[in-house]
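haha ok so turns out i had the wrong file open the whole time. this is the CORRECT one, sorry everyone. sequence first:
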Amino acid sequence: MSFRAINEKYLEPGSQILMVLGIVALCQPWNMPLHTYGVTIILIGLIGFNITSKIPRDEQAGTGHGAEQQARNAGAQH
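then structure:
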């Protein structure tokens, strides 16, 4: 399993879940330490999502020859 597949399957959704858990921690009234660190949890999830969302997926990580080949073939059709 490549790093891009791990990122797509685990890291990116994990950072989204961490942001949601930070919002829940911020809004709950029962545990004061959890409420105190709610914004920190949200920020860690946000930074993680910003990093993991910049990594291209496997199908988008090509060399770019596909679009060039399609452009060449489009001009050949009459």
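The mean pLDDT is 85.
again sry for the mixup
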